[in-house]
Amino acid sequence: MATTIDIRELPPAVSVDPNRERMLREAEKELPLEYRAGWHDELKPIFTTGKGLDRDIVETISKMKGELEWMTEIRVKAYEHFLERKLPAWGADLAQINFDDIYYYIKPTEAQGKTWEEVPEEIKNTFDKLGIPEAERKFLAGVSAQYESEVVYHSIREDLEKQGVIFTDMDSGLREHPEIVKKYFGKVIPYKDNKLAALNTAVWSGGSFVYVPKGVHVQIPLQAYFRINAKNAGQFERTLIIAEEGSFVHYIEGCTAPIWSEDSLHSAVVELIAMKDATIRYTTVQNWSNNVYNLVTKRAIAYEGATVAWIDGNLGSKVTMKYPSIYLLGKGAKAEIVSAAFANSGQTQDAGGKVWHCAPETTSTITSKSVTKGTGRAEFRGWIKIYKGCRDSVSAMRCDAMLLDKECYSGTTPVIEVDEEKVALGHEATVSKVGEEELFYLMSRGLTEREAITQIVNGFIEPFTKELPMEYAVELNKLIALQMDAAVG
Q1: Residues of the chain with pLDDT > 70: what percent?
Q2: What per-residue string of b and e applies to 19-42 under the rule 16 or more CB within 10 Å gives b?
Q3: Which residues contact 232 (CB under 8 A, 6 or more apart)?
Q4: Euclidean distance between CA atoms 378 and 59, whole angstroms
Q5: Which residue, among 292, 310, 301, has the nearest Cα to 274 in the 3D structure?
Q6: Taking the mean position of all CA atoms in its chain, how far away is CA 470?
Q7: Of the candidates 287, 355, 281, 283, which has an alpha carbon nearest to the alpha carbon of residue 323?
């Protein structure tokens, strides 16, 4: 049952960790002063399918990509299922989505660049503004940059290639490694899972394909960046990550879009497979503009001794509905879901996480932090299921919300199902507001009210930011500062 809170009855927020905040402020000085995603490029694509969707468009997308027949068949079946399925009747209001007013495939350039010099100047300038080439030079092992429907730039460090690591766009993965893709594509998230998963399967383009061989540790993160530029655009990337036995990989994605009066749709599907004793960390920092419907299906399976961690940050968008999920299929498997969401006026952040314990001695934690401002709405949905026979399993769910204004809303919908007696689990939820004493203390040391509130918010979400590499924690704190100014787009 959802819970609604009156801000006037709330205790003050948690205090700020001064050491962490000092380090982040010092690091932020090195970032460009202007960090806004609200611009758009005057770039004409070389091909677009036009608005709307039918079977011919689905087949055209597959034909243009030169796909094998089995993938075309999957696309068509998924399209037919998309027509049959209804949108979710729970959660955020999706009734305003006009599927006939969306461009489902936009090809921005003729070929993918192996160097940034091979990328068209207008597109390269966009990723320069976002700092992607610089980040690649400083602290990334590989980068994939998607613009509209296609990956326009891709690279991976040579030493990782020599170890057998595959990091490429999903289209190239299908062409170059069809046997691996066919084995795992749609096995974690079948197209019949939900209406948006069916839509993605029918029109998917771009995304990432990652394969890490047995025992290989990719210690430096791989990053993909997804950019929507056109009006009424749909972006439907497909990501598949397979970590073989004993391997490790950290994958980071970021997303932005300019502000338009018309709505855009981002509907990705992400499938993770962690084999025995493997570890996958999947980090997301999204900064969509307030005209984007961000409707994503993310799911992982973890076998014996494997660990999967979803670290998920959501800012901006008109509506976000996202619930990273993990099936713990082997003894000793572990799941960690840490999410943070900021809902400003006119925005809905409907997020959370799900874990299914399907084996004994499995462990899971779900931690959610949400901040709402103005008329923003945040909803946490968590689901933990422990099946019969999963003895000695341990699970904990925690949901914390901060309300900054009287008009905002925060709700929680936790579900816990336990069919086994010998388990340990807990659930905790808190809701708070900015305390007057905290505000007075910070303002007495020279901060403006807005700066003080921003620092309190940053301290509140620290359990999330401490899971990020420092560079991304800096980015997130800067995006939150822009949210406080209502300047994110």
Answers
A1: 78
A2: ebbeebeebeeeeeeebbbbebbe
A3: 51, 101, 102, 103, 260, 262, 263, 264
A4: 38
A5: 301
A6: 18
A7: 355
For CA atoms 162, 165, 168, 172, give the dihedral sign.
Answer: positive
CA distances, 173 to each of 180, 296, 405 (Å): 9, 21, 47
Cβ-based neighbour number of residue 459 at 10 Å:
18
Strand-strand pairing, 269-274 and 238-243: parallel
Residue type, 22: R
The H-assigned helical ranges of 17-140 are: 18-28, 55-64, 69-84, 121-129, 132-139
How far apart (Å, rounded) are the C-alpha atoms in residues 49 and 61? Answer: 8
Q: Is 350 exposed, middle or buried (0-12, 13-18, 19+ CB in 10 A)?
A: buried
Mean predicted lDDT score pLDDT of the chain = 84
Residue 389 pLDDT level (bands cut at 50, 70, 90): very high
Distance CA 152, CA 361 (A): 44
Kindly state the average pLDDT of the residues 120-130.
Answer: 65
**3-class SS of residue 370:** strand
Distance of CA 250 to the CA centre of its chain: 14
Mean pLDDT value across residues 391-406 = 94
Under 8 Å CB-to-CB from 26, ≥6 apart: which residues? Answer: none
Residue 438 has pLDDT above 90, yes or no: no
Q: Where are the alpha helices (DSSP H) in 359-487?
A: 436-443, 449-460, 462-465, 470-484
Is the pLDDT at 137 greater than 80? The verdict is no
Q: How far apart are CA 252 and CA 440, in angstroms?
A: 37
- Residue bearing tokens 């461009």: 103
CB 453 within 8 A of CB 434: yes
The 8-class DSSP code of residue 131 comes to: T
Asked whether the beta carbons of 335 and 355 are under 8 A apart, the reply is: yes
For residue 240, the one-letter residue type is L
pLDDT of residue 24 exceeding 80:
no
Distance CA 296, CA 140 (A): 25
State the pTM of this model.
Answer: 0.85
- The pLDDT score that the predictor gives to residue 77 is 98
65-66-68-71 Cα dihedral, nearest 10 degrees: 20
Give tens-digit pLDDT for 214-242: 999 998 888 887 777 656 778 899 999 99
User: What are the two backbone dihedrals, phi and then psi, of residue 164, each rounded to the nearest 5 degrees?
Assistant: 90, 5
